[in-house]
Model the fold of this input.
Amino acid sequence: MKPFTYQRAGELRDALAGAAGTANAKFISGGTNLLDLMKLEIERPAHLVDINHLPFNGIEETAEGGLRIGAQVRNSTLAADSRIRSDYPVLAQALLAGASAQIRNKASTGGNLLQRTRCYYFYDRNMPCNKRKPGSGCAALHGFNRMHAVLGSSDTCIAVHPSDMAVAMTLLDASVETMDTEGVTRQIPIGDLHRLPGTTPDIETQLKPGEMITAVILPPVQPGRHIYRKVRDRASYAFALVSVAAIVDVAGETITGARFALGGVAAKPWRTPEAEAILLGEKVSTEVFQRAAEIALANAIGRGGNDFKIPLAKRTVQHALAAASQRG
Amino acid sequence: MSNSTPMANTGKTWIGQPIDRVDGALKVTGEAVYAYEHRADDPVTYGYILGAGIARGRISAIDTAQAEAMPGVLCVMTHKNAPAQPAFGPAVTPAVREVFARPRPVLSTDRVRYYDEPVALVVAETFEAARGAAGLIAIEYEDERGAYDLSRHLADAYAPQRTNAGFQTDSLVGDFEAAFADSDVKVDAIYTTPYEHHNPMEPHATLAAWSGDEVTIYTSAQTLANFQAGIANTLQIPPDKVHLVSRFIGGGFGSKLIVHADTILAALAARELQRPVKIALTRQQMFANAGHRAKMIQSVRLSADRDGKLTGIAHDVCSATSRFEEFCEQTAVFARSLYAAPNRITRHRLVGLDTNRGEWMRSPGEAPGMLAFECAMDELADQIGIDPIELRILNEPEVDPERNVPFSTRNLVACMQEGARRFGWEQRQAGPGTVRDGRKLIGLGMAAAIRPNYLGASAARIGIDGNGRVKVELDMTDIGTGTYTILAQIAATSLGLPLSAIDVQLGDSHFPRTAGSGGSWGAASAGSAVHNACEALKQKIAKVAKEVPGSPFYGSNLDRTEFANGEIRIGDRSANLATLIKRVAPQGLDAQGAVEAAGENYRNYSQHAYGAHFVEIEVDLDTAEMRVSRMLSVIGAGRILNPKTARSQIIGGMVWGIGAALMEESVLDPRYGHFVNHDLAEYHVPVNADVPDLDVFFLEEPDNNANVFGSKGIGELGVCGAGAAVANAVFNATGVRVREFPITLDKILPGMPVETSRANRS
Done:
């Protein structure tokens, strides 16, 4: 690990000043990912600004009827919140499907969104990786890529974003509230937060240097049944091979609302508006779910080891939509 | 046996009781001190190992200036300045035992033999400074094209002189090829088993501290004698100048049988700096530097008549190994003893690659071998249309099929039958893919278990003081298996004392030498030594009791002596043992005992422990996720010394079976020669959620040819065949037979039914 300076920020302005005042500064919250990366010298910040003590640990109701989740709210706290459990169960399910109880106790809402990929080659400094070392190549492209992206990837990078929480938040049309080093706040639709790799996989989000996530805003409750289905190699403590977050609302046999998001398939949670649109007004049936799944994966590209994710994602979408449309 | 006079304990026997671990409280309260937690008299320094970024080649330049300049750094050791060490030597040692003792030099040449091989050591006042400085070392390599992929180099396969543990490389009985060619009923299948890593919770770690010309090594070792020899031969110092302490070990599984780089480098650096040095391997480093199970390609061919009687068995194994040091796992050896068949072949071949070599990993041989072979038996049963248990009973041998000696005890058939009854095996539908529960396919599978029983030369020292307290000392280790507890039970039983009177001290090379923990022989070997030491002590006590004036037994000429309930009885007189010792030997008495390595009984009998595993699995119809829902193992391993610790050993093995069947795999990238998924997030072992309530039943059958207790080794038996039972259950559930382990969902997904009817409506 490279030596670094450390600052515990008591006030927001100290944190922003700390980030602005030092080259190569990083915010640290739960540290469940950053510390691992620092030990391996994949992250080599010169300065750490500890934002654990900033007053962003509340979950408040918004004027619009949604929830404003402070960026420092821990994953375990969020998953246990009664409003999340009753009104946004897909988010509670996704949170509890992630990591382990110990990690969820430390991991923050903002940090979860900004966790980095688990690509094995990204994690090994001796390996080429365009994300870690731009221009060095992508070892995963023709290597062991069982966990890698089938949607939105490029020949430069096929890494996936590992968060479960982000998949549910994307499904819920959440937005991310940030503040930059000048103290200016903005809201970014969560679907726009993460960037696809293109030719610059090292740039992972829309955030500017020193810009901090302060909250995640959930819109009002989405009617319908919520499902988060995570497919993984073992029953717990494993990243998703594929995950599907889905909400389906039905009246009688007719679908009156449907949306779904995929995790484990791209550098960001993945939604396909065209696939969601075809479900509206249709009768609940395996065939219509199958069609939606086909549309969602229409542009999928396997890279060898991850080819299986395409049929697996289709099957899981179908299953999740069917489960979410179940009543009684 | 040393006792000429019967020294019975007619009182309480602790052997066979489900005693809690005597070291349990120390462990759960954090009082047990592990290698890296030890302190030294002088302030400790911290080492950090830097590993090679290539898998084959040489270091052409290495610049340590920046690292050396970092505050707190005490030394940077590379091949340029490391103390002289003997050369590693040939890939194959003249004798088996030399493998354990040979010099294992580190940082001694500019050659890189495998990815992440140590190329530098930084020692600093803090761990953080050492690790930070290691990141500042600049190295240039001449990268050579290496060979890393077993399947691409099969043409280079060769026959080793012997397998691990000294077995014959090949065995040939009858004419298998002719029998196979003539048979209508046959299985001809290739299975691959992947690289696997032990990953004990406690990494390999050492604190080395010199005092004059003697070094004390606190480390995590299974077998102190091997470490002492390995260190002495690498540092070229007399073995008696190497003092090893390894009292608590956070798991070994075979990865701590011999000395590794952490220990050698700590000893070298501590000598150079004249300061104590601590070094631990990181989890990532353990994938390259702490041994593994090698990848294997196994061909299993079976021929049978239409009723299921085997006419031929052929098990051919080709395994990856290292170019610089050979390791040939005895993967097909169990097949020489398991089933009867007139025509037989077992063969082992190796391909030398530019990787580190494999080492002993829990149940070397049986773990990968039975994973393949017991699936082939299931395939044969399916083909013939008979029950897998019936098939095995039909081929039960009367004597060891290749050695033609009787079995000492063999309870395999009883294990299968008892297991079938307990598990509800009659519910199994022979037709695969036919049982469904909601969105799950349900399958049942079984497999047999066999594992040889061993006894290794061991000695122990025992002493009793004037308060009746007993101290037992031997250089045995407890790697989490329950050795402390079992040895206390053995001594308490023999001496007729309460368990609380026995203080077992292990893991110190100043104590009498034992065979250590490995090969499932620890309880039998160390236990026999303790038993014999107790017998010798009792002889001494009886002698003194009769010879010392003032003793209640003074002048007695009776032979019959009993130790029970805290008393010694000679003839019709008895006395409290502690009171007697205080009176006749106030300084206390001590004795030694030893046991020789297995001899005649081992040659004259085929000695194995047996078992039968039963598994129920649920396979998700939509996603092909597989989760074991029930598992039972019925075990015939002689007399069980402690059913509680024994059960823990077996269930640990069963969990390894789940892992081997469904998830464990170290992926070697054939372009770079490195293990890609080298941490515990990506190298999957079963977590609690993957493990259902495991059931173990012991069919006790004392084996009087094995050792004085009639016990057999159980540390590895639980793994043997356990994975095959899982794999066979997957087949029964889905109808998909995967022969490339582990069976991950991507491999069965293409064979899973696609739903066309409306899903999930109740």
Remarks:
- Chain A touches chain B through 46 residues (CB under 8 Å).
